[in-house]
Amino acid sequence: xxxxxxxxxxxxxxxxxxxxxxxxxxxxxxxxxxxxxxxxxxxxxxxxxxxxxxxxxxxxxxxxxxxxxxxxxxxxxxxxxxxxxxxxxxxxxxxxxxxxxxxxxxxxxxxxxxxxxxxxxxxxxxxxxxxxxxxxxxxxxxxxxxxxxxxxxxxxxxxxxxxxxxxxxxxxxxxxxxxxx
Length: 181
What we know:
Layout (H helix, E strand, L loop, with lengths): L17 H5 L11 H11 L5 H5 L1 H29 L11 H13 L10 H16 L12 H13 L10 H11 L1
Helix pairs in contact: 4-5, 4-6, 4-8
């Protein structure tokens, strides 16, 4: 079954080039030599790498998810600094200080304290960032992607000359970083 969230792109971004090529292989195992498994373990930070578990497509999805998350880190750090008074170095590294700042954010806003970025925490960061940009509490910071949050995202996108699709992708996060500086 295809996980649509991994394939969703902003309206002004094309579908990743590898999606149509690898789609026939999704969920089909591919034999991987042991030396490659060890190399992939190092690349993915230990454990059995996705390619050894589910095939090439799973490895590509995992790699793209990791890259996608890494592009979010400067945005996370900027929102936490400007809107929550944190003093993080905006270096794009999800290190111990950023992890603890996320946990404090989750605790302050009544979210499940995990130190990771599940959709509810990401939505709460979007709401916090939009409130800081507006210099007003236009949205409740509750982590719920409701119609009001979507409307404010689209409004921000229009003001930033982006496609107003209410999806916070790389271009919208970049515009938010600029607006928060």
